[in-house]
## 1
Amino acid sequence: MTDVLLVAVSAFDVWFVFWWGETTWDLWFMGAGVIALLLRRRWPLAVFLLTLPTAYFMGPAAAPLIALFTLASRTHRRRLLAACTVVLAICMIWPVGTRIADFPVSSWLLADAAYALAPAAAAAFLGQFVQIRHELSARLAEITEAREHEQLMATQKVLAEERAQLAREMHDVVSHQVSLIAVRAGALQVSTTDAEAKEAAGTIRKLSVRTLDELRHMVNVLRAGGSGPTELAPQPTLAQLADLVAGSGIEATLRIGPHPELGPPAERAIYRTVQESLTNVRKHAPGASAEVALVHEGGGVTVTITSTAPTRPTVPLPSSRHGLLGLHQRAALLGGTLTWTATPEGGWRNTLTLPA
């Protein structure tokens, strides 16, 4: 659109000067130079040369000044630009049809040269200014990108140090304490003669060993610190739901109905939801029982974990209160929903619905 507007302005400039005359060969030269402005961005030097006849026949004209501005904004050859500026000034003051030997030399020659050189130099300087401005903008963008990259690298370094420190804390503190729990549970399982205590000790030892295994994988992930693909802990599947419910430490039943084949993300979401729900029952509802049901209905898979009211006083335990919120986000990422509500009998019901 800008090129068409400039061509229109240049054409009007020529028409305003020669509207009263007949169409001659010099008008064809000037018309070719005006139309060539459409190609000024691709071949700026060639277009400038084509517009020189317009300056020769008209004197100061729009077409050659526009062409010189474009050339100045796209070239880094200062000597070529200076030569083009001088040539344009000469064309604007050279009388039409005058030979070099007959060029009129008068007291007004210096003034005429100044009046011709001023617009040509202005077009050249303006083009150079635009070129420098674009280069500075590009350089500023590069500097900004480099600074952002440096900040990103510094942030990653800090995060790597924090991950390494967290991995050390998990290994030195959490692993040590869970190992003691496993050892004491194993000792109790061997030494006790009470069947119920032996079973409880065996469950504690099994859960402790599983926790240590997952913790070992998590420590490896933290120590990797984003350096590349890291093997994660073995991801749970629906086939492990029965073991999860049986080892939950509470009276719980599992009912799985016919359902379509689910992908690994959906199976992990179901497993983690059941795991978190049973953990909440064990922590916040002592003596309560739970029922886990998985059914296929309404084009989706629904998992419901229903617990009864507690039968013993609740023992306060530390809780971040982020478990269900994290499961809700996990369900939302899979296009499903997670809801939790109290039941009329005093228990809780968590319902996870995922698209099949």
Note: The first strand starts at residue 251 and ends at 256.
## 2
Amino acid sequence: MSQTNLPYEQNVDACFEEKIGKDGLSKAAYGKALKEAETALAWLREAYEKQTLALLRVPERKDDLGPLRDVAAKLLDNTTDLFVLGTGGSSLGAQAIAQLTSWGTQAHVQKGPRVFFLDNLDAQTMQAALSASDLKTTRFLVVSKSGGTVETSIQTLAAMSAIEKAGGGKYMKHHFAVLTEPAKDGKPNALRALAEKYGFATLEHDTGVGGRYSVLTNVGLLPADILGLDIEAFRAGAKDVLAPVLAGKPADEVAPAIGAALSMALQAEKGANMTVFMAYADRLERFLAWHAQLWGESLGKEGKGTTPVRAVGPVDQHSQLQLYLGGPKDKMYTVFMTETAGEGPVVLPELATDPAFASLAGHHIGDLVDAEARATVDTLAKNGRPVRTFKVKKLNERTLGALFMHFMLETIIAGKMLGIDPFDQPAVEEGKILAKKYLAEMK
């Protein structure tokens, strides 16, 4: 089972008992799950028509691109270093996008200003980052939907303090841009108030799109534009995936519905309580992190949901594959493969004359990556582990936009099938309240 009219090909054949034996999913359980997915698809179509889920209208938007590009130009003016301050959904999607340029990998070649994502709050990292930059030519993009994210707030104020100490206080407005939602329902937005006080360039965070679903809004596309990527192509790829949903196609012809039905049925019938995502491409490592937040925070409620696990091949074959093959049969596997055969450095035959190296003679690095990816998939299947694959011909803006929309829809559909709200995150609030309490006690 695969869909070939998309920028990627999803294949789920190796998840069923006909292919992998008794540990595979039965067609009866899968058929039941597909029927449940039909209800979720109907909900999505109604939400699109009634405009009650802003995410579904994002791929067709154009009105926000002009203001986005204006702010990008300001942030790039006379800039050597650009820091994106934000956490979770305010950063992970943009990082996944940035990796299209090989940012964050050994293959990255610096073009334009250095771009850093300070998504995790760490005292030593923040100090080192500020100390290693020329603050006169350093800019900061601050992203927080609510404007009250405490980690982002302290980063912003610390960066402003560093500028002030360096004697740049009177130029403060040139160093910062803020992306946050407007104050609403009488509730203040402290970050927006700060931006207005100092005259920072400001963009509106869509109030109807939660942080972890915001990658196709200006949250993800502003950094993409700064990095010189084709921002319209991301949305074009998303439209490719959304089109069958809006056209009323049945669940077994809608790629995200197939994925959601598969995951929920495997958990119900086979106890697959973990979902392992393994990508054979360094440029998809941050995409895996983005998905882990999306899936975990959206579905982990009321004792429900499955646990996302990240792995990057080939390196994690050596650190995790033994567990996957010899450990508990409580996982579903998703493997991402790119067309890598024939790519990368080649081994000269005259240098591989030792019998131990003979199999490598004349081969490219990409040949081995391709062989190992296929071998991992086949080995998982032969050992009764349900595994689906995503084959990507070319990892570009359109393909990544399609993958973003696929997994946002897959997550929403799974949430509806579980009978939970995939858009809230009530359990994380308790920790935030306690952290503020402990901070106050330090004074």
Note: The beta strands are 8-11, 81-85, 114-118, 138-143, 176-180, 201-204, 274-279, 307-312, 331-338, 387-392.
## 3
Amino acid sequence: MARNGTTPGPEGQPDGQVGSTSADADGASGSVGPARALSHRAVPDERGVRASEGAGPPGDGSRKATLATEYFLDGLSKVEIGRRHSLSRFQVARLLDEARDEGIVRIQIVDPSAAGRDYATLAQQLGISSVTVAAARPGESMRAAIARQAARLLTSRLREGGRLGVAWSRTLMHLPDTLEVLPAVDIVQLVGPLSAAGYSTAESSALVHTLGARSGGRVWALPTPLVVDSPQVAASLRAMEEVRTTLDAADALDVAVVSLGAWSAGASTLWARLGADEQRRAQEAGIVAEICGIMLGGTGAVWHSALEDRVIGVRADQLRRARVIAAAPAVGRPEAVIAAARSGLVDDIVLAPELADQVVALLE
């Protein structure tokens, strides 16, 4: 017989959640009446009480299941259980310990932030595979919580021998905190470093090398900035063998993890790298989102402009061939999430609860 529930332990102290209790072949569980009570009383010793011969044999699983049910599920204290069954409090405690050791009691603790909330209806509205809402743990930033959920999706999407593309952002830099072990996959850096306040450009390369060391696979690093000053400089850098081979490696991505930025100051690292005229032109063109330097309008269409010739990174057609997980930290910019979904560039989106609510409201 199995029962589930959570009740406080004795003296008001929580004892955990009981996943199940089980009885042996005679099927006894629940409270027992006087007919099943033990026939011997505990006899005091120098501690005040000692175990009597009537405590029952160590293998009495039915009795242990009964005591465990009364303690963990019914909320009775050890003293109350002892009175009911003519046992001392110490005997009850010992039998409860044995019940846990023998697997009669199985305690399960569920961390509500371990798995993000799945918004299946929202994913259907957006036309993508999944939307996961991240819940931050105490002391954890929302960016770290989003990265943790993205890492959880990665481990379920990756397969041995696959190829993983990784972008860099202030959110994705938290990936190694959770991805301690990876399947044996190759790692491809999708974009080069882009300076942001408080972050070193070296962190972009460090991210892919750290993940590569944990996967044991090959690493294709991209030793160039995401955006350079002129199309001529970009063309020269793309012609370098180490750059060309990394960009070509993105043709065969199985899974990619990217960051979704809204097109505004503070919500996109690319924004700060452009001049005021370029920022204004992008806004006038209706740009609302950016992924790996690929700029998107409200309908999800990729904006083709002179800026493309200065960007060095993965192309939109390469991302569309992969399973793409997007981390979306830009609370207050739901239009960026909708544009990314409509672009066909992403399959799974991880975002904060507030942003999820904003997306739902905007779709309505």
Note: The two ends are 47 Å apart (CA to CA).
